[in-house]
Amino acid sequence: MANYKTTQAVESLAAEIGENIYIDVAKWHLYLSDAHLHTTVAEKVYPLLENDELSEDAINDILRNISVSLGGGKKELSLFELLPKQCQTNLLELLEEFQQR
User: How far apart are the first and last CA of the chain?
Assistant: First the structure.
């Protein structure tokens, strides 16, 4: 039963991330749900929430370790490099609020 609750929580978190956090490409906002990255981010950050280990450094490390393929695989950048600073701040705030609920 705990597995079901965890799955539901990760899906809920992924939805919030996908709707609110975006990649900035040439001043276009590509939301993580549209880029199909919201679930990956949620799955990687959820253990931080469960273990009460949420911090800016931990989030940034996770974002640095998520590779995003560009140009049909010609180039890869970390998600950290593609998120505007304000989105990184918003992500941390979103996670803090999610953890409190």
Answer: 19
